[in-house]
Design a protein that fits this description.
about 150 residues, alpha+beta, Arc Repressor Mutant, subunit A, Dna Ligase, domain 1, 2 domains, three-stranded mixed beta sheet, two-stranded antiparallel ribbon, 5 strands, about 15% strand, globular, binds zinc ion
Length: about 150
């Protein structure tokens, strides 16, 4: 079951929505709590399935609208890996994504400040960064090869 938002999370939601001229609704609260409850970068369909457990009348279109609103308010990031459905991530700290091709799962990889600084420094003069998106593709190392040397 989906947990209700904590006071702190609800305030964060309210503040972000207010910045975008939007209000908290029951639907938005449910969709946001779904994203926070299991941070596995769900697709719209997955968010929809989970959100319906606590709000059976919710429509896919509403879930889609909620997610678009969150992205517009900077509360949630879209994660795109080629030819795959868009996934959603509520982690606002600077991070890269690692797509494990053996499982299809997407993991958050923390980006240290010095790495971000280095990345910004490689931009040619005259360009400025608004956001940096980094995606790794790979797989989990299997234990036998890790211990072989
Ligand atoms: Zn993420």
């Amino acid at each position: 079951m989906i947990q209700n938002l904590t006071e702190h999370q609800r305030e964060g939601l309210q503040e972000a929505l207010a910045h975008g001229g939007q209000k908290v609704t029951a639907q938005r609260e449910v969709v946001y709590s779904v994203l926070l409850a299991k941070r596995d970068h769900p697709t719209v369909d997955e968010v929809f399935q989970r959100a319906r457990e606590s709000m059976p009348g919710l429509s896919l279109a509403t879930v889609y609208n909620c997610l678009e609103t969150f992205v517009g308010c900077g509360l949630v990031r879209q994660v795109n890996h080629e030819r795959e459905s868009t996934r959603y991530c509520p982690n606002l700290a600077p991070h890269a994504h690692f797509r494990d091709d053996s499982t299809g799962r997407v993991h958050d990889i923390e980006l240290p400040a010095n790495v971000l600084q280095t990345l910004r420094s490689i931009l040619p003069a005259g360009f400025e960064t608004d956001s940096i998106e980094i995606s790794f593709h790979g797989h989990t190392k299997n234990k036998t090869s890790r211990h072989s040397n």
